[in-house]
């Protein structure tokens, strides 16, 4: 019962002074106390993420120590403790403190840590794990969540987020920590003296920037393109700026008001390039300087968004699917040698546009579950087997990987490549919107949308469960005027065909996801978020014209929303 957990914290005599004060502030607010203590903050397959504050269901030094204790046990269990753990962090409240707490717990177990002296992008941490050959990695970040959130993401020795089997093992070790208040942590100064806490920075930066040169496909093309870039108060400024400079882009304008790290993300409602409002200041500056392309990265720099002026001079923000399609087509069209066993890797909720482009260039496409860890896992598998050669990986949520020297989505790489794509088309007198229209005319008009429904707390979790059960059991045979061809239930790893009733196995890990495959290459999908109190609804439509695809998309959303509103 949550009250027992609250009492345990309230009676803890060595409680951190700040947390003790925060706990006292909510002592008369039973709803807040219940939300803070009704469960342990879940450590899932991607780590953990939550609101800052006191409580077992909050991000604080004690829940961080619990996660770090689990990681220490995991590393020791792998027999890799001597190789240590690389640690990075973003610009959020408590990020550096949580990074140091992680190192202190690891150091107590004799495991060395390699910690950046200041904030760094998530993909650089992925690279650092591989470069330093550590046993694991940690990034303290809540990505693009609101300011009151932070998180802890764990990486394996390949630099990828933990895939299911490894995650299951680590989750087990974390869950075995019975009392987060009693986790031991060594003294920071003593760890530094004993060689168990190493501070790292510029050398890893230099090696990453050297690898970044390989992202450029046509180094000799004219780079006469004007760019505006905003890191949205996060970690990407230095690496993106240096990467663009070494790639030959000289006209780069930084949105200075958003260039400095700011845990409040004070100039945006949300520091997420998926949301168009995040581009407001970049658009203003873009109009002032006549920029050809706007770039934005989220706080931990694993997501990148782009915006392009239309014929009326108004900037249009590209979707993740559109940007991915443009980069994929450019890679396959202009790489000097596209291997016969080349492979595109995308997620099940990413547009089918990419598959059609890959087919046109005679390379294969592999679908994975949502989450870049699954893409990273497949890159490693095929590197070892030689069965396929990785060409590009992406997901609709603005995550891309061009070259696998990192094993997580990399906004720095994406910024360099999309700038090159923009320059290439400008040399032909075209914008990225013109190039996109040509791809649509060639392959069909693929349009997608995403709706997120936020349902917080225990009651919200119950509603999300009810929604999934309803759609699972409803026997839906039509949506948006399109017949349902098949229903894919990733919780049972089965694909059920409506006509004829046949069922076949899906060769992917289990996940609480439902995807409805409709006629004419249309679809919709339901997925509860693993990191936020949300359920997400993804939609895909395709036809021979933009107007028809827009109509199909709206009809799909209307069908789903009518059912959803009856449930919540």
From TrEMBL:
Metal-binding keyword on record: yes
A Gene Ontology molecular function term of the record: phosphoglucomutase activity
Pathway assignment: Glycolipid metabolism; diglucosyl-diacylglycerol biosynthesis; Lipid metabolism
Domain of life (superkingdom): Bacteria
GO BP: glucose metabolic process; purine ribonucleoside salvage
UniProt-listed CDD domains: PGM2
Catalytic class of the enzyme: isomerase
Ranges where the Alpha-D-phosphohexomutase C-terminal domain occurs: 499-547
Catalytic activity: alpha-D-glucose 1-phosphate = alpha-D-glucose 6-phosphate
Gene3D superfamilies, alphabetized: Alpha-D-Glucose-1,6-Bisphosphate, subunit A, domain 3, Alpha-D-phosphohexomutase, C-terminal domain
Record-linked Pfam families: PGM_PMM_I (PF02878), PGM_PMM_II (PF02879), PGM_PMM_III (PF02880), PGM_PMM_IV (PF00408)
Keyword Zinc-finger recorded: no
EC identifiers of the protein: 5.4.2.2
Keywords: Carbohydrate metabolism, Glucose metabolism, Isomerase, Magnesium, Metal-binding, Phosphoprotein
Needed co-factor(s): Mg(2+)
Alpha-D-phosphohexomutase alpha/beta/alpha domain mapped to chain residues: 42-176, 207-313, 320-442
Similarity section: Belongs to the phosphohexose mutase family.
Protein name: Phosphoglucomutase
């Amino acid at each position: 019962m949550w009250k027992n957990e609250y009492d345990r914290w309230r009676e803890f005599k060595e409680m951190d002074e700040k947390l003790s004060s925060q706990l006292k502030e909510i002592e008369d607010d039973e709803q807040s106390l219940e939300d803070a203590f009704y469960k342990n903050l879940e450590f899932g397959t991607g780590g953990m993420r939550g609101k800052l504050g006191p409580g077992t269901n909050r991000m604080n030094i004690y829940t961080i120590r619990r996660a770090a204790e689990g990681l220490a046990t995991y590393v020791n269990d792998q027999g890799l403790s001597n190789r240590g753990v690389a640690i990075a962090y973003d610009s959020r409240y408590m990020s550096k403190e949580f990074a140091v707490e992680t190192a202190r717990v690891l150091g107590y177990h004799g495991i060395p840590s390699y910690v950046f002296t200041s904030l760094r992008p998530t993909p650089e941490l992925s690279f650092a794990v591989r470069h330093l050959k550590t046993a694991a990695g940690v990034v303290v970040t809540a990505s693009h969540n609101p300011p009151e959130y932070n998180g802890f993401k764990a990486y394996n020795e390949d630099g990828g987020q933990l895939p299911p089997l490894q995650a299951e093992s680590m989750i087990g070790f974390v869950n075995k920590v019975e009392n987060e208040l009693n986790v031991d942590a060594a003294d920071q100064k003593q760890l530094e003296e004993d060689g168990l806490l190493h501070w790292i920075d510029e050398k890893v930066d230099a090696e990453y920037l050297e690898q970044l040169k390989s992202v450029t496909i046509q180094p000799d093309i004219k780079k006469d393109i004007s760019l505006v870039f905003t890191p949205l108060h996060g970690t990407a400024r230095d690496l993106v700026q240096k990467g663009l400079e070494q790639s030959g882009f000289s006209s780069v304008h930084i949105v200075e008001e958003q260039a400095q790290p700011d845990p409040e993300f004070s100039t945006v409602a949300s520091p997420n390039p998926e949301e168009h409002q995040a581009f407001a200041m970049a658009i203003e500056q873009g109009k002032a300087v006549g920029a050809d392309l706007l770039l934005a990265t989220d706080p931990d720099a694993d997501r990148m968004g782009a915006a392009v002026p239309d014929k009326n001079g108004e900037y249009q923000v590209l979707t993740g699917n559109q940007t991915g399609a443009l980069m994929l087509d450019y890679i396959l069209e202009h790489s000097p040698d596209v291997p016969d066993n080349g492979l595109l890797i995308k997620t099940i909720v990413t547009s089918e546009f990419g598959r059609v482009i890959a087919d046109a260039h005679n390379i294969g496409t592999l679908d994975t579950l949502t989450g870049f860890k699954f893409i990273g896992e497949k890159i490693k598998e095929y590197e070892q087997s030689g069965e396929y050669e990785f060409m590009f990986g992406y997901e609709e949520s603005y995550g891309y990987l061009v070259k696998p020297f990192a094993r997580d989505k990399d906004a720095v790489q994406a910024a360099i490549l999309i700038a090159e794509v923009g320059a290439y088309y400008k040399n032909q007198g075209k914008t990225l919107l013109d190039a996109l229209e040509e791809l649509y005319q060639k392959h069909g008009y693929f349009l997608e949308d995403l709706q997120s429904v936020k349902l917080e707390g225990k009651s919200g979790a119950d509603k999300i469960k009810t929604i999934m059960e309803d759609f699972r059991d409803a026997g839906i045979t039509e949506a948006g005027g399109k017949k349902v061809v098949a229903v894919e239930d990733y919780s049972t790893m089965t694909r059920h065909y409506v006509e004829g009733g046949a069922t076949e196995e899906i060769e992917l890990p289990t996940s609480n996801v439902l995807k409805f495959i409709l006629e004419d290459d249309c679809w919709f999908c339901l997925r509860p978020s693993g990191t936020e109190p949300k359920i997400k609804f993804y939609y895909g439509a395709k036809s021979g014209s933009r107007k028809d695809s827009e109509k199909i998309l709206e009809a799909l959303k209307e069908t789903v929303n009518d059912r959803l509103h009856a449930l919540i």
